[in-house]
Amino acid sequence: MIKLDRIGFVIYEFPPIPYELYIKCYGRSNTQQVLVQTNDDALEGETQTEPLVSKTKWTQCPISFNLSATDNLEKLKNECSGVGCEELVDGISADYRRGGTDTNASLYQFVEKYGQIILSLLEEEDQYGGSQSSDQNLNSDIFENNTRDLKFSDQFINMKVDDVTFLKGRHVSHTLFCRESDVKLITVHQKPSTKDSSTTELVNRCMLCQWDITQPSTPLHILVSNSDVTSIVCNDPSLVVAGMRDGSISVWDVRDRTLGVRVGDTSLRPASYNTGEW
């Protein structure tokens, strides 16, 4: 048996060339020596990541403004409110633009809130004939003396049901005051005994009327139901809920102006929602 020995040796060994020798021999061949120095000649500066924003506000008391100066709406708005800012953007600020989008909604809320008050005052003026010399004269025009032997009251307010064309000859089956408004009264008028074929089908249905007892001459809203009403609930004057004989429930939102159906000079309101239609 032959056993070979292992022998290792270096065929070529070349130590690294010192950097100085390499530069001396090859440093100037196809190369360019550049000397740089950092941070010694750098310019120093300070920065603020969150810029400081300042605005100048002014206020004026008492308020003074000129209605003829309408060339700058923002300036007129500030003068009317008695407070403003010196910096203006294109004459109309972003706040004014945002406020403009709510103009229609604000106007509707204003008319809805104070319109009934104005109508009530006008009706009182018409009933009282402009004479408000005493409380006795004031009450005698809206209250009627008790000639019907009502044991619980000396006087009463007569809702002018017969003056409304669609309510003549209808039996009143339910009456209810709104829980949140003691001047809002709901009355339910059942279907007429004889149907009028010459009018729209809505007129021959059961109707609900919302009254303001300070304006007894005409109802505020006339609501039309799909069936005979058996019960009513009215906590919020703007919402009327009624149970029907067929088992369905109807809801009227008197604030919704889009559902009114004009019949002559009167606006009839179908239900905003009915469980029997779904």
From TrEMBL:
<dbReference type="GO" id="GO:0005868">
    <property type="term" value="C:cytoplasmic dynein complex"/>
</dbReference>
<dbReference type="GO" id="GO:0045503">
    <property type="term" value="F:dynein light chain binding"/>
</dbReference>
<dbReference type="InterPro" id="IPR015943">
    <property type="entry name" value="WD40/YVTN_repeat-like_dom_sf"/>
</dbReference>
<protein>
    <submittedName>
        <fullName>WD repeat-containing protein 60</fullName>
    </submittedName>
</protein>
<dbReference type="InterPro" id="IPR036322">
    <property type="entry name" value="WD40_repeat_dom_sf"/>
</dbReference>
<dbReference type="InterPro" id="IPR042505">
    <property type="entry name" value="DYNC2I1"/>
</dbReference>
<dbReference type="GO" id="GO:0005929">
    <property type="term" value="C:cilium"/>
</dbReference>
<dbReference type="GO" id="GO:0045504">
    <property type="term" value="F:dynein heavy chain binding"/>
</dbReference>
<dbReference type="GO" id="GO:0042073">
    <property type="term" value="P:intraciliary transport"/>
</dbReference>
